[in-house]
Structure of ABC transporter ATP-binding protein/permease:
Amino acid sequence: MRSLLKYLKGYKVESVIAPLFKMLEASFELIVPLITARIIDIGIADRDKSFILHQCIILVLLGVVGLICSLTAQYFAAKSSMGMGANIRKAMYHHVNTFSYEELDLIKPSTLINRITGDVNQVQNGVNLFLRLFMRAPFIVIGAIFMASTISLRLTGIFLLAMILIGTSIFLIVKITVKLYTKVQEHFDAIVLHTRESYSGARVIRAFHKERKEQEAFKEEGELLNRFQIQSGRISALLNPLTTSITNIGIISLLILGGKEVYRGALSQGEVVALINYMSQILLALLILVNLVVSITKALASGKRVAEVLALQPRMQEGKETTGLGKAEGISFKGVSFSYPNSDETAIENVEFSIPRGETIGIIGGTGAGKTTLINLIPRLYDATKGEVLLDGRKVQEYTYKRLRARVSIVPQRSVLFSGTIRENMQWRKESASDEEIWEALEIAQAKEFVMEKQEGLDGIVQGGGRNFSGGQRQRLCIARALIGKPDILILDDSASALDYATDAALRKALRRVGKELTTIIVSQRVASIKHGDVIFVMDEGRIQDIGNHEELRRTSEIYQELCRTQLGKGEAL
Ligand SMILES: Nc1ncnc2c1ncn2[C@@H]1O[C@H](COP(=O)(O)OP(=O)(O)OP(=O)(O)O)[C@@H](O)[C@H]1O
């Protein structure tokens, strides 16, 4: 949490003014019982109406000035805590954008969203309460005891005893409820996760007719949450009656012992009333302190979650080079192995190959063979754990991200579009892309026809995630997006899986016409999609088992033969 204090930068003055004004308000509050005592002892005793009126005006003035101080404190506390919250959110958003796939594997997007929103809000509220109340409550308690001691040192003992009893009850109850609160938070997180999953997977749930099962699981989570909330509610409900009882016992003791002092002539009636007022002020201040402690505990827990994200340093460092050596003119893998950060197994092992510029490469293999892992190393979505990945003779790590990603364009397995227009989605790689360039890319990606059919053309709306397009249309739009800005290397990671054979073939034919310089890597589980490649890599268990063109592999590669047998028909493969 301490590491988050730097985000208060720019709000230092506000953070000092807020507690100062709150303490000023508290000082006025501490004077009130003394004035009440004077009204009773002098005004009422002497039946002096003008004195009473005069003192009442002072009370009103104290109230008004106190209110102004309180509002000033609220204003400055809100300004600095909101400012701090905004600074943290900005810093987190910026920091998360520097994460590579490795960091995103470690902190899941749903947790990141919770941390950037809910947790930062909790920190913000905690800071606001802290600035306003943390100094005020102890100030009132100490001040009230001090003022009481100036009235009667003998009766101050009752105050100390009441404070010890109230303090102990509060401590015990908070200790238990904070533990329960942690449980409540855990179950609340689970419910949020469940709600999010069942909403985003609503169609799958309907398709598998799992509505009842989902409802039951939700009900179970809800009941658990309910149980812990009731438990913590019951225990916190004890707090008020317990502390009020202790205070009331204190007040009764003050009345009895104070009464005796009045008889002895050591105290006036007004002073006894003032002592009772101070006792009530202490109780109120301690109750506020309890709420403050609970909120601060929550804020500290949230602050820890926020600080964890900010402390996570991206393992990849950006290079400085903007040009290649031009030697090898293509992509080379030298003894490359890779393991995911959250896994002990190697996803690819000792991969070695070179691809000259302008070739079309097919990568085929069963699920989990390591195809996606391999191609993700080229645009540095991950860094190899062993070996080197070279692009035009330079390690990919040496290039700036801008340069590397301008040269290598990847269409991932999952087609992701963003809400906006088709044009806006097409301009992701090149903001200045003209309509002509966009139509050209759409034509190659076999998407021109259905975009033209739209009344608005390139201004056609894309709904979040591209849900107003079919799976195949989404894939084609993503391929078009990847072609804009003329990359040197185009990687299609199973990105044509939703296309029918004819469209898939038309796409590959169009890609071949793009230019001799374009290196195309097509990852697929379909033989038909990669069989025209200049070279085909056959992958299995994280290794490239066989390399060759379609005809060679049909003769030499058992895995390839098997794939052909199952897909193209037995006769063709043998
Ligand atoms: N983010 C990840 N974290 C941990 N392990 C992963 C991750 N992604 C993939 N793996 C594992 O790495 C191995 C290779 O996966 P990869 O996605 O490269 O296979 P693939 O050949 O592309 O499969 P598919 O054709 O099904 O997409 C698999 O065993 C998989 O479980």
User: Anything to note?
Assistant: The chain has two domains: 2-311, 330-573.
